[in-house]
Structure formats: structure tokens, C-alpha cells
User: Fold this.
Amino acid sequence: MNRFEIWSQRGQSWVYDVAALRRQVLALEGEVMVRYVNRLGAPCSLFLVIEGQTARQRFKPGMPPLDWEWLRQALHEPALPLSLAPRNPYPRQP
Assistant:
């Protein structure tokens, strides 16, 4: 499970997946900061400007729209407990 912390003029809130993040961010207007943990386990911040139904990356040249698929792939995946981890598809042969 991922966790996003959203800061805007309305205050602070949290969501737990990219779809919920997208819905909540696009319902806002103006500047928004989103904090999350990247795939290396390091904390990251996205600074966005929301215009209409578009989230633009504030500090990138030309303020391009946020690539939501890139964000989904950039997230840190928490380790699964051993009981839920995938089993070896190639069991040992006697």
C-alpha cells in the first residue's frame, strides 16, 4: 500500500493509491505539493499547479502535465510478508 500526503491551500490530506490521488488533486485548483516514497525508498515531493483538469509539474521546464503512469511506476513497493510472497514457480526436482 502506498501513501500520498497532499498539501494545498485547503490543508493537508492523505490517500493510498494513484487513482485516489488523481481524483483528489484534480478536484483542487492552484498549487499543490504531493509527498510520497519513491522506488528507492527515499521521500520525494511533487510540486504541481492544477489548472482545470490538468496537473502540471511546476519546476520542470515548460510545466508539462504530470504523467500518472510514470508516478505509479516510480513508487516504492513495500515488502510482502513471507506468507503472501510469490512462491517459486520452479520447485526443486528430486
In short: The first strand starts at residue 4 and ends at 8. The chain has a mean pLDDT of 83. The chain has two helices and five strands.
